Amino acid sequence: MKPISKMKISSRLHVLRAEQRMTQEQLAREVGVTRATIVAIEGEDYNPSLELAFRLAKFFKTDIQNIFSAVEDKK
Fold first, then answer.
1. H-helix or E-strand containing 19?
2. Which residues pair with 38 in a beta bridge?
3. Interatomic CA distance for residues 53 and 59, integer angstroms
4. Alpha-carbon distance 31 to 73, whole Å?
5. 71 touches 7 (CB < 8 A)
6. Angstrom distances, CA of residue 60 to CA of 2, 32, 49, 70, 72
7. pLDDT values of the chain reduced to their tens digit, one per residue, 75 residues
8. Is the pTM value of this prediction over 0.90?
9. Could you tell me which of 13, 17, 5 has the C-alpha nearest to residue 69?
């Protein structure tokens, strides 16, 4: 069997946040995380938990797939 390749999670969070004219700090407060967490997600340095992904989707009134997508990590 061929091993499953690693996946990288791509985020549109910065786009959705900008459309709402929100700062990273404001969004962090709304979903109950630190600004550093929002920075890391937007920089694609951190994959959010499933719970946090759902909280973000609920906040933006959209589906998780509209915020996050999985792409094969070429590294």
1. helix 13-19
2. none
3. 10
4. 28
5. yes
6. 38, 14, 17, 19, 26
7. 777 777 788 999 999 999 999 999 999 999 999 999 999 999 989 999 999 999 999 999 999 999 999 887 776
8. no
9. 13
